[in-house]
Structures are given as structure tokens and as C-alpha cells.
Amino acid sequence: MKLIRCDESHANSILAIFNDAIANTTALYDYHLRTPQVIQTWFEDKRKGDYPVIGMVDDAGRLMGFGTYGVFRVRPAYKYTVEHSLYVDAQFRGQGVGKILLREIIAAAESQNYHVLVGGVDSSNSVSIALHKKFGFTHCGTLRQVGFKFGRWLDLDFYQLILQTPAKPVDG
Hints:
Elements lengths: L1 E4 L5 H14 L11 H14 L3 E5 L5 E9 L9 E8 L8 H15 L4 E7 L3 H9 L3 E12 L2 E11 L10
Parallel strand pairs: 4-5
Antiparallel strand pairs: 1-2, 2-3, 3-4, 5-7, 6-7
Helix pairs in contact: 1-2
């Protein structure tokens, strides 16, 4: 296993991981599968915002999972806060991939002088919640019944990690 920076050459694998999450889990509150065009635009947005897409590949070069972050809210005063996401291919879950990717997401955010990482996690996703808590994320709120998928209402929990960066934040 090794860490990589994902690019468009990983688009099909990322698309498959996203679409599995949409079709089979509540990790994404989407109904419609994503298309190659959506992933192309997603990569363009990541590049424009200088947001890394960190992946892990196995010895055969298969993408096991990926994590990234992006805009939390568009107002300028939120510039030191990003919202992260992390997805592991179903066949590689339970093998420590998420743990390694989350550690790298945190390190990347620190290196880019962000101050807070925010993650929205479906409240029934005990594995993701435990992972975030292991890294020091704290529960900072629950939005009750904000999603509806698979015939039921979904609660969304928010977790945050406050980083020591930046050393000298500035207004504006």
C-alpha cells in the first residue's frame, strides 16, 4: 500500500467509489449516480482551490480509497476552515485505509495553514464516527432528519478538529 496524490487518471476509480456510496450507503446524501463529467468538474474545482485529493493504492495499483477537503462555506471569514470527506472502496474497508487517509488529510490541512477541519457524518455511521473520535475530532452538533434516503429520515452529525495552524491568522 502507498499514498498518492490522485489526478484525472484515477477518475474512473473515484467515480466507482462515489457511486457505490450513493447506491448502497448513507455516506452521501445523493440519489443519482455521478457521471464522468461530474468527476472532471470535481477535479477542476479541487485544482482551482488547491485542495489535494489523497489516495491509497494497493500493490497492484488499485485505488483503495481517497480523501479530500474543500470549501466549508463561501464567506471570507471561513477561509481557515475546510470540510473534508473520506471514502474507502467496499472491498478494502476494515483494513486501516481510512485511518491512514484521515491522518494525511489532517497533515495536508495543517501544511496549508487551515485551522479547522469539519466533517459531516451520517449519525448511523459508527465506523466513521469512531475513526474521527480516534483522531481527536469532537462532536459539535447534530442536524436531525435533514436527509431522506432509503425510505427513512437521516440525521447528520458534525465533527470538528481544531488545528494549531495558522501561526498568524489575518482578517480579510
